[in-house]
């Protein structure tokens, strides 16, 4: 049995993956957007070709969801981002016992949600700029992070559905007490 101090230390160590991932995503997202705004200015539609007709940097003011879907719903998505962040933060103690892949995925979602929320507060829209020409949407680092985080969580849930969840939690609790 662990002491209260050992338990607290265990939880902090386990949450480092989640919160460091979120911080890294937020940093890369906001830094890349600042660079693009300096490079292209603030006029929507401005672009630079990076790799011929494969990859462009094109400025899009997105008031909708990831990849420009559901335009003109900025307030709804700002509220959703706040809810995602609050739920993850309030669930920290429980997340600490989750497998590393779940903690990583939640960190990606948290960082992405905060990144796009920062844009909505600062500009009134999300700054999108990654234009893969064979893909119909323009997106940003936060969008990609949220999407990859959701895919990782779904993959984990599909691969570990059923009674394995409880045994994993008990395994992690046993490992932590050693």
TrEMBL record:
Transmembrane portions of the chain: 73-90, 97-117, 137-159
GO cellular component, one term: plasma membrane
Catalytic activity line of the entry: Release of signal peptides from bacterial membrane prolipoproteins. Hydrolyzes -Xaa-Yaa-Zaa-|-(S,diacylglyceryl)Cys-, in which Xaa is hydrophobic (preferably Leu), and Yaa (Ala or Ser) and Zaa (Gly or Ala) have small, neutral side chains
Chief site of localization: membrane
Active-site residues, as the UniProt record annotates them: 128, 143
Pathway annotation: Protein modification; lipoprotein biosynthesis (signal peptide cleavage)
Topology in the lipid bilayer: Multi-pass membrane protein
Keywords: Aspartyl protease, Cell membrane, Hydrolase, Lipoprotein, Membrane, Protease, Transmembrane, Transmembrane helix
GO biological process: one example: proteolysis
Location(s), subcellular: Cell membrane
Function as written in the Swiss-Prot or TrEMBL entry: This protein specifically catalyzes the removal of signal peptides from prolipoproteins.
Recorded family membership: Belongs to the peptidase A8 family.
Protein name from the UniProt record: Lipoprotein signal peptidase
Gene, per the UniProt record: lspA
